[in-house]
Amino acid sequence: MAGGKKKEAVTPPDGGWGWIIVAGCFVVTVCTRAVTRCISIFFVEFQINFTHDYSRTAWIHSLVDCTTMLCAPLGSFIGNRLSCRIAVIMGGFLASTGLVLSSFATSLEYLYLTLGVLTGVGFALCYTPSIAMVGTYFCERKALAYGIAMSGSGIGTFVLAPVVQLLIDHYSWRGALLILGGLVSNLCVCGALLRPVAARDEGKGAPAAADGEKAADGGPPLGPLVGSRGREHSCFCFRSLQEYSFLLMPDFMVLAASFLFLANGCSVPFVYLVPYALSVGVRHQQAAFLMSILGVIAIVGNITFGWLTDRRCLKKYRSVCYMVAVGMEGLCCLFIPLLRSFPLLVPFSVLYGYFDGAYVALIPVVTSDVVGNTYLSSALGVVYFLHAIPYLFSPPIGGWLVDQTGSYMATFFLSGFSLISSSLLLSAAAVIRQCQRTRTYATNSDPKLDTCQSAQTDYYKASHEEPKLTTNMLSV
User: Fold this and answer.
1) Which residue would you say has higher pLDDT here, 31 or 139?
2) Phi and psi (nearest 5°) for 310?
3) Which of 114, 232, 310, 398 sits most deeply, having the most CB atoms within 10 A of its CB?
4) Which phi and psi (to 5°) does residue 200 adopt?
5) Residue 232: count of CB within 10 angstroms of its CB
């Protein structure tokens, strides 16, 4: 804006430094989502050490997930206002500090604060900005890029699950948390890699400042700066409101409602798979290996679904692929109470892991298809924020059901029905939307349609566009 220069629209390069961004996001998902999943391996250790029931112990995992998602808009805000680089570096420092402090825990309440809140806030500052950054670098190969980036969750789970169990066996749970704190500090390195896509000034080849990085060409005079503070404040408020205008879109509202059901069901298996396996006689190493299987198969789901939905024949059916993945994951949960041995639990880990990887890779892609790249960072903040409350309450509710019934059946049934409901909600909305389009097309193609009806139809069809000032309007 300074000097009246116009900036060219930023075109995603679909490669180049974008692959470094993908690699950085990959490590971020390893250090956030994979570490969060592996906290379930500490479940039995916490329960034995602090002598508490399932419900109270499950609050640790719930608080990590809830805080990560609840503070996702904060990550988006810092990424938009300062830079994604600053947000990720700050988050890496907080998350590493939280894990190191957790190794000195003397009570569950202490872990609620350090492991649940402090580490969760750090993960939130890292997760959303790094994911949004991938979307700014890719367009044609966006689903594939997200598939590779989000596969860090599966690869990290595959590698970390047995490693964490070995660390617990050799150094106790305190030593394992201390080592994880050192691992998570690598998030600061990932943040340093997040270089923004620079816009270029029109008529000149010099890149303009982007993503919170200011040009070093000097500032405006003091007088105009002071006089423009009020206008800057008004522009700031207007820009902040404009960034969240997508909340009024009907398609996004339906998508948001489906995410609530999704979040209510997807976290329970990761919390209770290992305790359930131990309860049916599976050995500790085998139970941890189930998490590894789930993680490595999730990699296949991340990459294959990302690659497939980038094909021209499937690109317009991304939302359908997402619904299928979520629905199949729900069906897997309904059958897990029937699986009471390690050989039977392996197929569950394979199927659940595959469809989990598939839908995780498609969440930012489906969100981008609904709101566009312009609002992607803010929309992802809201999307992950919506996961917070279900993530907070679903594991403790699942633990309460285990305490009351003495069985994991009700817990996994609740998870399965929530996931299926998420898929059915999107399917119902898609069917209703298709029926409306068919009815509108039939009406518009009617030769007897009068002028008033045609004008009204055109008005509603373009209602999402900004009103344009015309000569006739000015004359009125």
Assistant:
1) 31
2) -85, -10
3) 398
4) -120, 140
5) 10
